[in-house]
Amino acid sequence: MKHPTNDNSVSKRGPTAGTPLTAHSDPSRHLLRTQAIELRNSFLFAQKLGKPLNTFVTVDLVGAKGWSTDLPSRDQAGKIAESFRKAIKDWCARHGLTPAFIYVLENPPSGGPGIHMHLLMHLPEGPEWLSLRNSLERCLQMAGGWSFSTSSSAPVAGAALPKSRRTPLELGGSPLSVADQLIKLRYLSKGISPREVVVVDGVRKTLNQLAGDSIDPHVTLRPQGDVFTTKRAGGTSSLGKTSRRKAGWVEQNDLLWLSRKLERDALRKETENKLKAWHKKKGTTP
Fold it and tell me: What is the superkingdom listed in this entry's lineage (predicted)?
């Protein structure tokens, strides 16, 4: 069998001939494979600790306190992003909480608010969640130098967030469900290259071959632009590699979780296997 030889994205020899080559992603445009894997392990570890990442936060860097239109973005993006992360850590300390969050920086070339940061973090659920959420918002307002009237999206108990123009600071109005937490993790990871390779049933495929550009109904794979810092993504030390290693965490290094279809297929296969095992134990026929 002859394999294509004029496609630089396809292996030309050996046992992988004719299958996609491992992508070499441009870190100035894409979230790297290692970064996406680190985000997911931190996410799962938070769940194991009983601290699910149930609160979604977005802050704009452009226009925040300390941002200067007279300076190049690369001289200030990382510094401004770190100032917000420090504000969150300090706020957690004041409230007796261990900081637990992951984040990504984005600067979509298609336009929008410019450089911004998404965070997925843990806040204790229950009656206190809303008051903590609103207190955190006030903290970030001060860190960003925004007035309450231009940045607030604070809800009242039991009320839905109003649909309005985008603000420089956005926090979810209620704790995320387990399903929505995974959707947000995929959303944070949408900057990964669709040419990244995964192995499905022994066959090498790209993320694009698995799901086109869509890894979730509301999540599309696309470049997220130059964020002018090497720290495009990360998280708190409480969820990092050192903490995971001390806890005996087994790292999960695949990207299959990015495909909603594969997730559904795996769940269906798991259910079928459990059903077969049950019938075998009972001596019945499925």
Answer: Bacteria
